[in-house]
Records
---
Amino acid sequence: MIAYLIRRILYALPILVGVNLLTFALFFVVNTPDDMARMQLGVKRVTPDAIEQWKHRHGYDKPLFLNRAAAGTDKITDTIFWQKSVSMFVLDFGYSDDGRNISHEIATRMWPSLSIALPTFLVGLVVYITFALLMTLFRATALDMAGVALCVLLMSISGLFYIIGGQFVVSKLWHLVPISGYAGGLDSFKFVVLPIAIGIAGSVGASSRWYRTIFLEEIGKDYVRTARAKGLSELRVLFTHVLKNAMIPILTGVVVVIPLLFMGSLLTESFFGIPGLGSYTIDAINAQDFSVVRAMVFLGSLLYIVGLILTDISYTMVDPRVRLS
Amino acid sequence: MSFMPVILLSDALVFLLLAAVIASVWYVRRREHLLLPWRRVARNPTAMVSLLVLSLFVLVGLLDTLHYRAALPEMNNGTTVYSPQVLSLFDKLVTPLRTHTEKTYSAPLAVTLYAKESVIDKAGHVLREYPRLRYGGASLTDVQQRDSDVLRRGLTGALTGLALGLLIALGSRRWLARRGWPLRALLIATLIISVLIGATINLATAYHVLGTDKVGQDVLYLSLKSIRTGLIIGTVTTMVTLPLALFLGIAAGYLRGWVDDVIQYVYTVLSSIPSVLLIAAAVLMMQVTIDMHPQWFATSASRADMRLVSLCLILGVTSWTSLCRLMRGETLKLREMEYIQAAQAFGVSPFRILTRHIMPNVMHIVLISLVMDFSGLVLAEAVLSYIGVGVDPSMISFGTMINAARQEMGRDPMVWWSLASAFGFMLVLVLSANLFADAVRDAFDPRLNRTGEAV
């Protein structure tokens, strides 16, 4: 197990290097730091002096890969590539344009993100799977057809509609919860309940339909016939036997997103004014704060790779036949 | 010449795509085995009604793709000067909708503005009242007559539409029946659609059917213009996805070895970056490039268009990985098949094996994945435009409409019509695309057991 994990982590390294190189190319080679400076300072009427100052302030006034002016190892380390890209491997993301430490921001902002994303994920999973199992229970009847039709309808509605509509009905018409905002501790409940509900409603269509196809594939297998022949009720067959056996395909899609929950949701957080990583990213995009966006890209892929490793581990937990070697 | 045709980059791509579609239709029509799954789609009432709705959207989109620049009336030393404004054939057809702009917001079918203003009457008194619209209901002398006028116009329009719809239905009934297409569903859909279109057209000549937005533009016009943007995002993106996924996927699966390793590495790296973030990063960089080179673009339309095409390119580059993985898996399976081994034994070149024996056998996966992706891309456009990494703010799209209307949520009474129209049009487009995609998947999926099915 440990040997497997170490090997997986070693496999993940080249991928992270690839992500790093890709973002580096995207941010520094496609456009020069001069272009970025001009963009930030306004395209017209910008003096070369101001550009130099901006570059110096943000540490972009260095050569890309090789600093010929420096001595010793500084030749390599005193460059944009080393300071902006390689340092991300030790989770040192540098400073954002307004001078704050990005790593520190991430550490404080991931908790509000998590307080919405985690309940959405857990409650959502229960809701989707229950709905899908109920459709499977009534398969090939009018009820099932209506369920599928509802799913297709729900998944055809834009995610923005759920948020805007939900805010309008629940907060503005019924005055049940505040439209947006966030508070720490127990007070946060009234702020997070609507985003959570909307998050679940937004993906109930696509997810339930997907789980339904998984369950329908399982239901034709021999063990289901055996279970029925033993005289088990259909409910029991579905909710215990089929559910357990459908775990592998379910886990494949589910476990991988768990680490990404830290990143929060861009849309939900910006609409509800949650001070999480999602709204941090969106603010950075709007302010064209490239260092924050770069940090988020790297963090996102790091978490995704962690998710892939977790998926493999989770297989061993639900299926004793799977051995990690 | 009184106008100069303009072919924007996206127009050229659309024409290319159209040519490809026509060519493949022509190719498939002559091959019975390829036609078979399409016959199954054609027998599905839901699919055909969705297709009918989709083709109306496509028609609007295509009309909106034929761009031109009108000549200005003044002559400069005998040379014609063209207007910097790029219009489309669709704009020309709905000129009243485009030019009849009000001062600011007005509700659907309203005759007055949404907010009160100070108006000076004939006697010189200053009154606070709702000013009349310049165009909406301008023919009415009394505001009270509006309801009866709307009803009359709507009904006449609906009846004209019904009559035309009946004509079309009767005319095409034979033709439909001969092909075994679902007659009843199609006829009912035709009637409903023509009634709706008839009523809308007749009302739109005198009113703003879906109201006006902040700068007084007709919301119906904006919604119709958004269709092209949505369709382009949904289709042009596949022009990037398809070659990448198809060639790399098949190459990885068939050649294996280091080619497979490299391709797998590339798509693992790309897919490990959360797509929204990758798109955001790429769009930000593209924006810097476009802003730094204003000399590249003759008109603001061509700049916005460049951004649209780049967005498609970026969406394509970030979303080919899943299809590529499917292609690779399927090719790995196919290359062990006996007929491939036979071809290899006969000394057929690898290129020929790939094009003649493997490619046709993975096309059903390609097709299913393309139609399934379409609706997701249309929805993604709205979200990306909201985040600020979507289409150019000057380009009319569902995303920019929603974005502009969102700020008006707080007003009282609420300005709901822009949002409702954008979401409504998007829902119809995406829903019909989803339903059609489902039918295509069911018809092409070889895993479904179809023994004993009549052909």
---
Amino acid sequence: MDSSPANKRFAEDIGVKFPLLSDWHRKAVKDYGVYNNETGYGTRATFVIDQSGIIKHIEEGRSAIDPTGAYQACNLFDKKKSN
Amino acid sequence: MLKRFAPLILLLAGLAVPVFGQQPAASPAPPSAPKPAPPKTHLKVGQPAPDFTLTDTEGKQVNLHDFKGKQNVILAFYILAFTGG
């Protein structure tokens, strides 16, 4: 797991504008069910969570690398707001 | 549109090899021992997202509940981001 200083260096390298969080103790990966006991690390996954804290979309594995699914879920929020 | 979202990235790294990368040519997995599929989350769409408290790059604690009623959140577990995986 990357530490916060390692994340900071990474954030500077790629110039991100959003928070990069460190799950040093692997609690979040376990709580979200994406912890791999065999490797001791998490797997790639994306969760879209609305303002009320409800999960609206989940991408796991290879598809989580592609942001299209999460982007489409965001579009669903916009459509609901415009209705 | 994306301004209403607070994208959060969890960087969980440390392996020297990619989790989803190609099998090394020199040591392919034998047919009798297929690589186990990665775990699938127990969470479902429509369920409350588990709260978390994690540290950002400035050492500040970030909680999911801080965004409740304010912003939607994209939470990306991005494994091996800093290790070339």
